[in-house]
Write a sequence for this structure.
């Protein structure tokens, strides 16, 4: 799935008509299945017109980004959300954060977050040759905009946009579908409902924090994960308690819904009752988490 050989066409959207075409295409996608993989780069993201332009149905890029049913996949939503909210008043929703998905599915320490390069190297299903090509494209682009390497950020504003920069931007999202698929498969396994929920909650918390005046996207503390061992254990215990309480509540509703009979209110004693007997009635897969 290399970006050179995967047959992925890169199109630069540079007109109002093309923006409207993108909006139309997005609203034809199936909801509930992530189809938009996004990354923001540049000194300025563009004019307000890019986000406020509407199609014939009154839909815009702003409404897409704020939709809870059109799922969007990004890698570390914090700075992207900060820029969209601060400059364009866009409150993103329907976000799946691949960085947090990796952390939630990672075995071992969850103290520090992994960067995109690390996730690609460790978890991407592409070949070693394709990973090397991907890294080269990223490196060529970085040399053009990173001041530490002799580049300048303003190159993102040049039109037409330099081909190396366009490839760099495309490279940031080209492998997100692959990584999302890898981590989603892990979160969908039996017994992982806790982490699926925990990752979504952490994503929402990131978004809320990014809209706060105190948010600092350059802080070194941003490299740390949102959970430590103690908070994870506490959250798991609370999760299991809530699931058990819900299961018992479901059992009570079933008990009180029985019609009275001469046979001890309809009960038939067929042996001891286990936790599995109770949980099966309310979906056992959501009970215990490792």
């Amino acid at each position: 799935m290399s970006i050179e050989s995967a047959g992925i066409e890169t199109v630069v959207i540079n007109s109002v008509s093309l923006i409207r075409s993108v909006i139309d295409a997005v609203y034809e996608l199936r909801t509930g299945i992530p189809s938009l993989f996004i990354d923001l780069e540049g000194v300025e993201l563009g004019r307000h017109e890019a986000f406020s332009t509407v199609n014939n149905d009154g839909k815009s890029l702003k409404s897409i980004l704020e939709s809870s049913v059109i799922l969007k996949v990004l890698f570390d939503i914090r700075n992207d959300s900060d820029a969209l909210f601060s400059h364009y008043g866009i409150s993103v929703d329907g976000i799946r954060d691949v960085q947090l998905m990796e952390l939630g599915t990672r075995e071992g320490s969850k103290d520090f977050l992994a960067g995109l390069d690390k996730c690609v190297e460790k978890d991407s299903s592409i070949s070693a040759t394709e990973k090397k090509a991907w890294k080269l494209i990223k490196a060529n682009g970085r040399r053009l905009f990173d001041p530490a390497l002799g580049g300048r950020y303003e190159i993102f504003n040049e039109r037409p946009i330099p081909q190396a920069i366009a490839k760099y931007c495309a490279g940031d999202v080209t492998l997100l579908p692959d990584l999302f698929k890898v981590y989603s498969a892990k979160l969908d396994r039996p017994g992982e409902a806790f982490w699926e929920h925990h990752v979504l909650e952490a994503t929402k918390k990131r978004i809320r924090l990014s809209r706060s005046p105190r948010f600092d996207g350059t802080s070194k503390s941003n490299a740390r994960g949102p959970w430590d061992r103690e908070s994870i254990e506490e959250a798991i215990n609370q999760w299991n308690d809530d699931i058990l309480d819900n299961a018992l509540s479901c059992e009570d509703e079933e008990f009180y819904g029985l019609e009275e009979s001469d046979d001890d209110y309809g009960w038939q004693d067929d042996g001891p009752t286990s936790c599995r007997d109770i949980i099966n009635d309310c979906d056992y897969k959501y009970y215990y988490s490792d």
Confidence is low (pLDDT under 50) at residues 1-7, 258-267, 272-290. The radius of gyration is 24 Å.
